[in-house]
Amino acid sequence: MNEWFELAQEKDEKDTLAKYKEEFYLGEAVHYMDGNSLGLMSRPAEQSLLDVMEDWRQHGIDGWTRGDRPWFYMSEKLGEMMAHLVGAGAHEVLATNSTTMNIHQTVRTLYQPTDERYKIMVDDLNFPSDIYAVQSILDDYGYPDGMVKVPSAEGHTLSTDAIIDRMEEDVAMILLPSVLYRSGQVMEMKKLTEKAHEKGILIGFDLCHSIGSVPHSLKEWDVDFAMWCTYKHLNGGPGSVGGLYVHEKHHDLGVSLKGWFGNNKQTQFDMVHTFDQAHDISQYQVGTPHIFSMAPLLGSLTMFQEVGMTNIRMKSLELTDFMMNMIEAELEGHEVEIVTPRAHEHRGGHILIGHPKAAGINAALKSKGVIPDFRAPSYVRIAPVALYNSFEDVYHTVMILKEIMDERLYEQFDNQRGVIA
C-alpha cells in the first residue's frame, strides 16, 4: 500500500475534527478543494435557513421581533457569533452589506484627508474590488492620484519591511489583505498595525481569505477596521452577507453612508428625518438586512463556536503541510511550482501552484472529481478545509494531479479560463 495513503489514514484516525465532515454535503466521488472560494453547504446552515423561513411562515411581519431568531437583531447576533473569530468585542462586529460595500462604508467614514496627508496605501496583489472601491473614494474626495501601491518583488508575496518603508507622512490610511488571495501569504498584521500607528496612520484589513481559517486578535493588535465575506471558509452560502469590524474608539464618528438601520434601534421607528446614530457597530448598517442571506450563518457559525479557531488552524496547517510535501515528492520534474510560503506564520488556508498549462490542469482535475479553481495567468488554487476535508481527500487529490501530469491529460483541454474561474 502507498506510504502516503497509510500516512493519510493514520492522520485521519487521529483527527478530532473528522466528525464534522458528516455535517456537510460533499457529493459522490468528489474531492472539494475550493472552500477558499465558496464553502460547502452544511446541515446546520441548511436547517437554520429553514428555521428562519418557518418564522416567516408562522409570524409574518412579527418575525422581526418574535420567535427564537428575531430578524431585527440578526445582524448584531451574527456579529456576536463572529467576534471570537476576529478577536474583538461583540459591540465591534456586525454582519451587514457586502465586502465591497463595507470597504466604502469604513474607508469613507474613517478617511480624514488633508492637503498634506491624503494618500491611501494598498498593495499590488490585492483583490480588484478593494482597489476599485479605494480609487472611487479618492476620486470622490478630489485626490485621483492618492493611491499608493506597494509592489511585490516577485509577483506573489509582499514584504512587510517594504510596506513599512512606504509609511510616509503623506499616507492617511492603509488597506491591506490579511491573506493574499492568490499566494495565500499571511500578512504580519500586528507589526504592520504597530508601525502604522507610530506614524499616525489608520490601518484596516480585508479578511476574506483568512476569516474561518486563520485566528485573529484585531482588538489586541489595535487594528482600526476590517471587513470580510462569509461565503468562503465560513460556509454562509453564495452571496451571503459580509462581516465588519470597527474598533470602538471610532464609534463616535459620523458614518458616511447613512440609512435607517444605522439608526439607534430605540428611535428607529419614530421615523423622524434627523439621523439618530446608533452608538455601537450597528451604526454601520445602511438598509434593511437581507435576512435569508444571513440565516445560514446562524447554523454554520455554531460549528466554529464548538471547534474553536485554534483547532481549525492546527488541522488546516497539517492538511496543507501534507499536501505540499506530497506535491514536492510526487510531482518532481513536472514544472509544478508551489508559490505559497512554507512557514506556518506566513501561510493561510490554501495553496497556489503554478504551471504553464494551469487552466488545462484545472479542467482536467474537475473532470476527475477534484474541485479547485484557476487564477490567471497560470495558477491553480487548492484549499483543503479543516471542517470537511480529510487527509485521504488530500492524498487522492495529489494522486489524481500526478496522473494528470504523468499522462499529460491536461492537453485534452483548452488552456483557457472559463467566464468564471
Description:
- The longest helix is centred in the last third of the chain and has 22 residues, at 309-330.
- The chain has a seven-stranded mixed beta sheet with strand order 2-8-7-6-5-3-4, sandwiched between helices.
- The model has no long low-confidence stretch (mean pLDDT 96).
- The radius of gyration is 22 Å and the shape is globular.
- Strand 6, helix 8 and strand 7 form a beta-alpha-beta unit.
- It has helices spanning 3-14, 43-59, 74-86, 99-110, 128-141, 160-165, 189-198, 218-221, 291-307, 309-330, 358-367, 391-406; strands at 31-32, 93-95, 119-123, 147-150, 171-177, 202-206, 225-228, 243-246, 337-338, 351-354, 370-371, 373-375, 379-382.
- It has 421 residues and is an alpha/beta fold.
- The chain folds into two domains: 3-32 and 308-412, Aspartate Aminotransferase, domain 1; 47-306, Type I PLP-dependent aspartate aminotransferase-like (Major domain) (Aspartate Aminotransferase, domain 2, 3-Layer(aba) Sandwich).
- It contains twelve helices and 13 strands.
- The modification N6-(pyridoxal phosphate)lysine is found at residue 232.
- Pyridoxal 5'-phosphate binds at residues 99-100, 127-130, 206, 209, 231, 260, 288.
- Keywords: Hydrolase, Pyridine nucleotide biosynthesis, Pyridoxal phosphate.
- This is Kynureninase.
- GO terms for molecular function: kynureninase activity; pyridoxal phosphate binding.
